[in-house]
Write a structure and sequence with these properties.
With 438 residues, the chain is of the alpha/beta class. The protein has two domains: 406 residues, Glycosidases (TIM Barrel); 27 residues. Helices cover 42% and strands 17% of the residues. The chain contains 15 helices and 19 strands. An eight-stranded parallel β-barrel has the order 2-5-8-9-10-12-15-16, surrounded by four helices. A three-stranded mixed sheet has the order 11-13-14. The chain has a two-stranded antiparallel sheet with strand order 1-19. A hairpin with a 5-residue loop joins β13 and β14. The radius of gyration is 22 Å and the shape is globular.
Amino acid sequence: MFTTFMFATGIENSIPTINNGRTRIDEMEKCGHYKHWRTDFSLLADLDIQVLRYGPPLHTTFIGPGRYDWSFADMTFGELKRLNVIPIVDLCHFGVPDWLGNFQNPDFPELFASYAEAFARRFPWVQLYTPINEMFVCALFSASYGWWNEQLTTDHAFVTALKHLVKANVLAMARILEVRHDAIFIQSESSEYFHAENPAAIKPAEVMNAKRFLSLDLNYGRRVDSEMYEFIMDNGMTREEYHFFLNRSSLRHHCIMGNDYYVTNEHRVHANGSTVSAGDVFGYDEITRQYYDRFMLPVMHTETNLMEGPRGDEAVNWLWKQWANVLRVRNTGVPILGFTWYSLTDQIDWDTALREENDRISPVGLYDLDRNIRAVGTSYKQLIADWCDVLPAQSVCLTLPLMPPQEYEEEQPLLRHRDLVIQRLCNATKDDIQQASQ
């Protein structure tokens, strides 16, 4: 199967801890997915969505070094395979099991890579992965803002968390490829921009606009800017660690760059370096172009949403605006391969970025928590119906070699694909000879 565009949604599986590790915010539990997972999966067909950002809860699946509890994953991924839904598997979303501590733990990268390999061996039909979701945001919220997990607020803690997160992601990609040679990694990462409020804010804004690229620079083996090199070296990264990332740049050939964009992703920078939300000044298309020019990889819009407000059309209008941006990106020559409204259902406590456990509903889903479709769900369903046959006609070159779950067989898929190509070439050669003889 080759596809030129993926319409997707996701099931929110954040698991950060707060209150110095005493409280875990498990979004799957809060949003009722553990009870209603069969219903949640059945909703996809009604929307005509075949691609789902989804992952097992890391804290209850990875129960110790080399120890895994696959009971929930076996049920859910078995059902996804039965439904022939293509999962983009999100293995780590903002938190780790209690026994691993937090992202300051230097053992995390290797231990997580072993978990990723174990998952790939258990579910070899899975092809698409986001090993670690939003590495930059996770490091920022956990070790710079002091909101989650280690709840630290220093540059050294931020660099430590970031290098561990990215190293874990890189090692996981390599280990998954040992199992599934045609695996594709869609790195969901926040796309940010910092606007200087006045001339005195230009310098801090420039630093922040360099720092926003750090996670992907390291992940894709790109040399960081000189100022960022000094920053990471001054805050705990060694030359050996830095060259670890540079020496694994070949992994980028298996990657699609996922750019997440929310109304909070653009920031207004004050002269003292503090920031406030700026709203969507540039928008997804301009900021994605900046990331594409830097990394030159195919793109997917991997997350967006907006709360349904008092008028009831706020999310619907945001969906239209994001889709207009996706079309703009595509029409200006950037190879964009997918769009995601995140998430399938409403979420809980994202009004405080999961910093407080208030059990307040964030009405951002395609469905509410009673599994009733929202206006944006109806609009997304119509958008998919309107555009699903139009986009593929734009180019036969921008195709993604996907293998739906039910087409996977236990023997190596790449070898079967190679044999099929050889067979077709042989048939073509026979036809050419026959025509020539006539």
